[in-house]
Amino acid sequence: MPDQKERTFVxxxxxxxxxxxxxxxxxxxxxxxxxxxxxxxxxxFKEWLNVSDHLALRxxxxxxxxRSTDGGKTSSPCMNGWHIxxxxxxxxxxxxxxxxxxxxxxxxxxxxxxxxxxxWRDQETGAADxxxxxxxxxxxxxxxxxx
Length: 147
Prior knowledge:
With 147 residues, the protein is mostly beta strands.
């Protein structure tokens, strides 16, 4: 049996209820035994992420995603295409730059123009739709921050 690090479709997720595991690409999940828990690297999204020689991104204290083309000497917000312009993470991948926040997940090839990633069907209702509506309401002030 190959090492779990080399297997496809194996996903570990660190949640508020502990570490869970899927062996079928996320279709089903189970709790991981203490001895099988992987080590998770933590990221500081407030530090500049060098995407290329000419592009760096980071999330500032206000939740703005910033873009720099001079190594962080100067920067500007770069959230064109975001429904709620508030970011909490940013990653460089072979598929492009991925970033997320309370309004969804987004992908960019240049760190300037973003496209929303549809992680569930538009017709689907349930918890995902509720969370989306909740964060939209908070952002636009329909829901108070203490609710």
